[in-house]
Amino acid sequence: EKAGYRHFMQKEINEQPRALIDTIRGKYSLESGDVFFDLSKDLKESLKDITRIVIVACGTSWHAGLVGKFYIEKFARIPVEVDIASEYRYRDLIADEKLLFIAISQSGETADTLSAMRMVKKMGAKVISICNVVGSSIARESHSVIYTHAGPEIGVASTKAFTTQVASLFLFAMYLGRQRETMSAGESREFLKELVGIPDKLEHVLRLDGEIEDLAKKYKDASDFLYLGRNVNYPIALEGALKLKEISYIHAEGYPAGEMKHGPIALIDSELPVFVIAVKGSVYDKTASNVEEVKARDGIVIAIVTEGDTELAGKADHIIEVPDVPEELSVFLTVTATQIFAYHCANLLGLDVDQPRNLAKSVTVE
Ligand code: M6R
Predict the structure, then answer these.
(1) What is the pLDDT of residues 163-172, one digit of tens each?
(2) Would you say which domain of life the source belongs to (predicted)?
(3) Residues whose CB falls within 8 Å of the CB of residue 311, separated by 6 or more in sequence, listed in order
(4) Residue ranges of the alpha helices (H) in 207-283?
(5) Could you give the C-alpha distances from 6 to 112, 132, 208, 244, in angstroms and in order?
(6) Does residue 61's CB lie within 6 angstroms of at least one atom of ligand 1?
(7) Is 231 in the pocket of ligand 1 (CB under 6 A)?
(8) How far does Cα 347 stand from its chain's mean position?
């Protein structure tokens, strides 16, 4: 059942190229640049009138939502708020028929996400869910569901569910962008072409397994880790840290790189490994200067960079090189590198990778 892999998590990390292909299949045309979703006619019409979007989820699914905000605001120019379900549901909610609420949940059974969804639905909001489990409560109760087609995810640490949620959000953002004409057909064709190329490039990252395992051997006994990223890779810093915490029990913090000087920089010393996600793109220079700040304080830098980056190769202690793709799509590659690292740390520490202590796959209590 693990198809030759030691753990479900390892199998699921390696299934991501296939899972992505299944998730995007049938949803786009490379010729026209159009994106298709199987939504009811009414919902399609009402999407034209929505003025804001709220994305609500927990844990890793919340991180996917944070990435989705970048896509929707960029492609469709609709303001997006992303919140944690257990926070959102206890606030004085502002919702009406002009609000599109997107619930993201692998299991479709997370209690807080389901409750938040029920509340805004009663207030008249349009509700779409992004779920992996077919027929789950959240899927059934939303006006429309986008399934992620990742296949069953058994490992408690979410991996392929995350990348397929992000792919769904990417396409949905393009769908809205095309509908509102904030995205041209030409631009859409370009992004689709790049998206279709991602599974292949992900295979390349999977082949870095041995290299990343060597890093895990070196640093698995560290007591703390910092993960830094900016822009679309800021949520990946959060996700990389969460993966490490939940399966290897090593304390890790994810931070937007620009916030480092507002506090966490005080933590840096020669014992602290810092993952810096510094792929090329709009914030490359800024993030590269964070690498220098960490090095100036003797921190250990593991930089995730774009292939061929000689500048950071000379500055960081270690580099993980991922293929060159548009910044928006780099998250698929950078997150996979962090998943592989967390997996090897937990495995080398002899921990129960698939069933970490204190955690359940589906959190149906509030
Ligand atoms: O099934 P859901 O996507 O609603 O689950 C949300 C979280 O419980 C889940 O992502 C959790 O954080 C994972 N253990 C992360 O790996």
Answers:
(1) 999 999 999 9
(2) Bacteria
(3) 288
(4) 209-219, 234-248
(5) 33, 23, 17, 18
(6) yes
(7) no
(8) 23
